[in-house]
Amino acid sequence: MKIVVSVGGSVLARALSPEKFRNYAAALKDISKKNVVFIVTGGGKAARDYIGVARDLGADEATCDLIGIELTRLNARLLIAALGDDAYYEPPRDYKEAKNASLTGKIVVMGGVTPGQTTDAVSAVLAEYIGAELLINATSTDGVYTSDPKKNRDAKKFDSMTPHQLIEIVMKTEMVAGANSPVDLLAAKIIERSNIKTIVLNGEDPQSIVEAVSGKHKGTVIGK
Ligand code: UTP
């Protein structure tokens, strides 16, 4: 099966530690024995810190995004280092490069691609482009909730939902300033149009990704 895993920077690199990357690499190597695997890494706190400083210095938003993309690629490089020979040696800079890189039989790890979006959207477009059967979004919450569970104690988790329900939730969440959306709106729209089975789960322990690939998880399934 072809699988795209989006690993939030908040999960992979909240506090930079070799152990986290090593554990992730071990889990991804495990999955790649029987599957074709693509990983998209987020930027996490480092990206937010750099973007914050750039914004204070008067940089425009597109420039801030370009800085964010560089940070996502640095996390991709750390994961490539942890995967060693099992990974394609460089983070591809676009979807075509990613598809070509995968022909080597190696695990492909990439970061952001273009300003105006996040790596959630990158992983959804990549999943569509390479014909993935499964998209896993490993994040810091354990699924999609009716509203932001960090702000609303009555928020309820979905075990499964349609892509359209996801879009409605994301739009409602994104209208509240500073809210934490489970995935960005562009990603939700692409998941809807391509109807790729998507699982949003807590990626704190990378074993949860291994289990999701074999059909066991406690996250939210979107679609199919
Ligand atoms: P992330 O995907 O990590 O953003 O990209 P995020 O959702 O804010 O963070 P986490 O990791 O889930 O906590 C970091 C930043 O890089 C830029 C954006 O500015 C984004 O906020 N970016 C990333 C792009 O502009 N384009 C991309 O394709 C990817």
Q: Indicate the structural class.
A: alpha/beta
Which architecture name does CATH use?
3-Layer(aba) Sandwich
Ligands, ions, cofactors: uridine 5'-triphosphate
Question: Uncertain regions: pLDDT < 50 for 5+ in a row?
Answer: none
Helix and strand sequence:
EHHEHHHEHEEHHEHE
CATH homology-level superfamily: Acetylglutamate kinase-like
Structure described in brief:
This protein is of the alpha/beta class and 224 residues long. Helix content is 46%, strand content 14%.
What does this structure look like?
The protein has 224 residues and is an alpha/beta fold. It has one domain (2-222): 3-Layer(aba) Sandwich (Carbamate kinase), CATH 3.40.1160. Helix content is 46%, strand content 14%. The protein has a seven-stranded mixed sheet with strand order 3-2-1-4-6-7-5, with helices on both faces. The model has no long low-confidence stretch (mean pLDDT 94). The chain binds uridine 5'-triphosphate. The site of uridine 5'-triphosphate (UTP) has 21 residues, from helix 1, helix 3, helix 4 and helix 6.
